Amino acid sequence: MSGDERGDPADGGRDPTGGDPLFAEAGVLNRTELIRRPELLEISTVPGSDRIAGRTEQIQYVASNIGPLVTNSEPTSVMIYGKTGTGKSLVSKHTSRRVVREAESRGTDVEMVYVDCAQHNTEAQATSKIAREVNKLAGEPESIPITGLGPSHYYSYIWSLLEDHYDGGIVILDEIDQLQPTEDANTLLMQLSRAGESEKTEAYIGVIGISNKVEWGDELNSRVLSSLGNEETVFPPYDADQLQNILSAREDAFHDGVLASEIIPRTAALAAREHGDARKAVRILKNAGKLAEQEGAEQVQEHHVNEAQMKAEVDRLRELLATDTPHARYVLLALAELTQNTDETEFRTTRIYDAYVEVCKQEAADHLKIDRVRDLLREHAFNDTVESTLESGGRAGGTYKQHRLLKDPAVVKESVMREM
Ligand SMILES: Nc1ncnc2c1ncn2[C@@H]1O[C@H](COP(=O)(O)OP(=O)(O)OP(=O)(O)O)[C@@H](O)[C@H]1O
Ligand SMILES: [Mg+2]
């Protein structure tokens, strides 16, 4: 032990109860318990019917397209788009479960399989996952290798397992834009949604494709779109009232009297600020509760909510960046550097492009063409990390775009570096 450490005044000092003050300060001793049911504040929990608010229309939309399965009729596959936290995954799972249950009560055998395409991101991996899930649900009649087979073999398993054990199946392809290359997504959607038509299996298959990149639909070819029955919908962001209802339905996560009346409206208002994101709302409420507990407070107060909101911002940016491509991150980094190193806040595409090319040089990466960078900026604008405005003027009298970073550049840089 060094002399300095031994001489630390806190070391050996005592708090009023006679203990080492370090632990009182660290919030270990005077914690309060304010959260009664933490699972209700977990993002991964799929809330039951009584806790879902503001999505009646969307649930009905999915039910009207996938629902025919309950009477052993042909479903229509759908694509669902919408910003993050707008209930796409939740509504898809919730409605699919209800289809499965209703089918069962009518004597029809339907099962659902959920695939996170960010995890299973090629046609082979996704088909392997679907085949193994159906196999599991059917009681493991086959032994299917996780890898090593081509997609065509996995499709054969899927068709025969469905044919032998079920009247119908629902396949949810979440984060479908993560399938690489995009052609894999086209093929997968086509194979699944046209399986009946091409007589591969007699079981009806309803596909729900989900993406938080609205423009990704442009990547789908017209044959795929028509095999999806051209059905697509965009889930709008929640408004502050809907977020309030979502949070109120989980109020019992806290002990009685812990949430003062202004806490839920305040949290909802903060979460609705950029775009109404339910995940963010739930996360802020949970973190506010935890902060209050650590502080030994008897109630969750507004300053806990404000602090939790700041933390949620950073977490969300990290998540967004984690699924972005490296070049999407380089573009954001370029804009963050410009914002930090100049007095300006808005930059033209060409200027960002130059800064982006510099970033690529530093990263020893080949840079993309400017049109791709334009697309990436549009993607960032869609995710509310960047705001783009169309300006008219310029010498030739045409129009040009100006882009502004909506996040703290220091937070962006830190988050981007972490991913690189
Ligand atoms: N209508 C709702 N009622 C209650 N809770 C909701 C509702 N919508 C979303 N949530 C909560 O927010 C979380 C995130 O929602 P969900 O996963 O459906 O978002 P998403 O649209 O799929 O977002 P992403 O594009 O980021 O995947 C859910 O786990 C759930 O806890
Ligand atoms: Mg989702």
TrEMBL record:
Ranges of Basic and acidic residues composition bias in the record: 1-14
InterPro entries tied to this protein: AAA+_ATPase, AAA_22, Cdc6_C, Cdc6_lid, ORC1/CDC6, Orc1/Cdc6_arc, P-loop_NTPase, WH-like_DNA-bd_sf
Protein name stated in the entry: ORC1-type DNA replication protein
GO molecular function: ATP binding
Highest taxon above the source species: Archaea
One Pfam family per UniProt: AAA_22
AAA+ ATPase domain residues: 74-239
Keyword Nucleotide-binding annotated: yes
UniProt-listed Gene3D superfamilies: 1.10.8.60, P-loop containing nucleotide triphosphate hydrolases (3.40.50.300), Winged helix-like DNA-binding domain superfamily/Winged helix DNA-binding domain (1.10.10.10)
Keywords: ATP-binding, DNA replication, Nucleotide-binding
Cited CDD domains: AAA, Cdc6_C
UniProt organism field: Halorubrum laminariae
Role according to the record: Involved in regulation of DNA replication.
